[in-house]
Amino acid sequence: MESALPLLLVVLLSAQLAFCGQLVEYLPGYPGKLPFKLETGYIQVGASEMFYYFIESQGDPRTDPLFLWLTGGPGCSSLSGILYEIGPIEFDIDSYLGGIPPLKYYPYAWTKTASIVFLDSPVGTGFSYSVTQEGWVSSDTKAAKEAYEFFLKWLDENRQYLGLQIFVGGDSYSGIIVPLVTKHIVEGNEAGVIPFVNLKGYLLGSPRTDSVLDENSKIKFAHRMALISDEIYDAAKTSCNENYVDVDPTNTACMLALQQYQKCVKDVWTNDILEPNCVFASTRPHETWRSTRSLEEDGNFILSPPKIPSLWCRAFNYALADVWANDGTVRDALHIRKGTIEPWKRCNLTISYTKDQLSVVYAHRFLSNKSLLVLVESGDRDMVVPFVGTVEWIKSLNLTIDIDWHPWFVDGQVAGYTRKYKYSDDTYRLVYATVKGGGHTAPEYYRKRCYFMFDRWVHWYPL
Prior knowledge:
By secondary structure, this protein is of the alpha/beta class. The chain has a domain at 7-210 and 358-458: 3-Layer(aba) Sandwich (Rossmann fold), CATH 3.40.50.1820. The protein is built from 13 helices and 18 strands. It has helices at residues 7-14, 78-86, 140-157, 174-190, 211-224, 230-239, 252-265, 318-325, 328-333, 361-367, 387-395, 442-445, 447-458, and strands at residues 21-24, 38-45, 48-55, 66-70, 89-91, 103-105, 115-119, 129-130, 137-139, 166-171, 199-205, 278-281, 288-291, 352-354, 373-379, 400-410, 413-422, 429-435. Strands 1, 2, 3, 4, 7, 8, 10, 11, 15, 16, 17 and 18 form a twelve-stranded mixed beta sheet that branches. A two-stranded antiparallel sheet has the order 5-6. Helix 4 links the parallel strand 10 (166-171) and strand 11. Helix 6 packs antiparallel against helix 7 (252-265). The protein is globular, with a radius of gyration of 22 Å.
């Protein structure tokens, strides 16, 4: 857990708290002026100083929707979402020769058609910090409440966006937080909280939703993907009674079946079962290990060896974010308060965090009669949060199938498959979509496909 700030620093920072966002026109590593509007800043929520990046729509910001975006973890910075998933810039990895990693423009960004507030949440994530020792402690419940209060304050300070259609979005572990924040907004609107949020819906990518469903689905997914044999799957299914969480250690048959399963999948890259598993070098000397870490885990490693095409692993790319965000000139450009976060980590596992919401299916049920537009998408090769469990909790909402399973296309090719659900009175519309070949999370693997999926959905067009 991060240490409490020195009292003098807290006093000095307190004088700045009333100041919200600052424009960023140039970023180290990017050639020239940024071709989009970027603002960064802090908003105080209790003892927390919540850091955000705001990218205004490159389309028509007067009419395009507004999103609050939360990256997974818990503890992964929203900068990861900007650079690797849905933002208008990315690292020019092929040109990196050392020093500040070069950046380049990415054309198929979700900010082409929406304004997005990327929030570093919970406290301790990215550049968000606390001014008290107690403030560093967080949980699912606290993180959702803080994100909601942050958004209300941001909207109050940026009232020109209040009339837009507003959505909440996130991926990976934020599948727990997004529906809770959305529920807070609905309840706040119904209670007359000011400002009123013109909420239209929410979006979830590869979403952690129910700890039992998500974990149980991994064995079914492994069977469907031919990672385990029929015999191993049948033995596990029968002996474990289809429950692979908190198994009774005296159930010998179940334990043996699960051991066979683990033997088959332990060397598979769970973010995308089609890609190579990676060996990282620790930031601590003389220590190496094999890892399958994702947005739900720590990505704070340096790559080893340097990128060689025949040895490349996708996770090598993450090292550049740590190099870039910890550079002093980058921090100055982003208007980071000195002495608050050292070092920056793409995913911070040192946060003091309690996972106190093991399932948020109840929140989806609550929201299912609130006239909302919902998109849930999954990479169909993601074994971190397999589509199998996602489909199961969606079915548990007992929605009516409006348009049944069918392919959707980008550039004349099948990009995935989709199904549209509705509530009985047709006021709630949930679109579920897979991204063919996509991993965890899908936009990192197929940014263009996912942009078109997002663009069609958010503007109320069918996939």
